[in-house]
Each structure stands twice: as structure tokens, then as C-alpha cells.
Amino acid sequence: MVSHYINAFGYTTIFLILFCGIVGIPAPEESFLIILGMFIAKGQLLLYSSTIYACLGVIVGMLVAYALGRYAGVPFFSKYGKYVGLTEPKLKAAREKFHKHGKWTILFGLFVPGLRQISPYLAGISHYPFLLYVCFSVIGGIVWVLSFLLLGYFVGDQVHISIIVGGAILFFVVYVILQLRKKRSTRFKGSDHS
């Protein structure tokens, strides 16, 4: 499906999907980037063009969300925030917290689903300095895009191996958790008798 849309509409598809994901319109951002990396590995897409359009989609999305937060967010939450439990004191506390941790939130927030969509709006609502926001957004956006593109690129032909390794790790983790629960329940039963 991805290749169909890219063939039909070109690399603009990459831009639009990532832009939508960042501004909060549901889109599968990480999995989409991994799939792009796989297509690049197979020579179906160009690395340079895919990276440029992906980075632009993310960065433009972050800038649009920032602008919406800055110019529409405060009036919106002042009027309707009470209906969703976001009162003025809570909004003020969120702004203060964002100013304290904003740099790290902008740089690495893209790696956390949910935070990825909320942080640009919160930066705008908080009136986070625009030039700093742009710098951190560009750096964070490029790192995030390249991380998932390269993951798809290097894992692309190894998907079956990745599934086996991932399944083995998951099995091991579940096994350890079950064993720990079993020991804990045995210990509690023993303490009940004493």
C-alpha cells in the first residue's frame, strides 16, 4: 500500500504521512519509517529523497503544531479547559514544567508516542523561545527520522531473523516474570502458615 501511494503521488506521500502524525492526525509514524528503510534497502526508494521528505514532514509538522499552540492554544484552553480538567493553575504548572525540561522534551519527545504529538503544542502554549524550539526540533527530528529509517534499512532483509530473536527475547522475559510470580506466591503462602 505504501509503495502504491508513493508511486502514485511521489515522495510527497512521505511528507504528508509524517506531517499528519506529528500534528496529531493518526498515522503510523515509526512503522512507516521502518518500512521506508526496508524499501530503501531493496532499492525501491532513494535514501536521500526519502530522508529529506521525512525530515521536512516532521519539522514542518512540529512548527505548525507550535504555531497552533502559541496562537490558538491559550485562548482555547482559557475558554474550554475547565471542561477537560485543564484549569488555569494546571496550565500554568504545565508551562513552568515545560520551560524547565523543554529542551529534552523537544529533542527526545519524538521517541515517545503521545508526547510526540503533545509537546509541540505545549511548547507553543508555553511561549517557549521560537529559535530554540526550531533548533531542537530540527536536531530531534533528524535524529528520530534517521533512527527508524536506518533500523528499517539494516533490518529490512533480516525481518525473519528479527522476528525469531524478538520472539525468543519475549518468551524469556515472560518466563522470568512467571517464575518470579511463582516464587512470590510460594513465599506468601509460606508466611501465611507461620
Automatic annotation (TrEMBL):
Instruction: Tell me the keywords, alphabetical order.
Output: Membrane, Transmembrane, Transmembrane helix
Sorted alphabetically, which InterPro entries does this protein's record hold?
DedA_domain, VTT_dom
Where are the coiled-coil regions? none
Q: Does the keyword S-adenosyl-L-methionine belong to this entry?
A: no
Q: Looking at the keywords, is Cell inner membrane present? A: no
Which cellular component appears as one GO term in the record?
plasma membrane
VTT domain location is 28-153
Q: Which domain of life is it from?
A: Bacteria
Residue stretches spanning the membrane = 6-25, 45-68, 130-153, 159-178
**Family from the record:** Belongs to the DedA family.
The protein's name is Alkaline phosphatase
Organism, by scientific name, is Priestia veravalensis
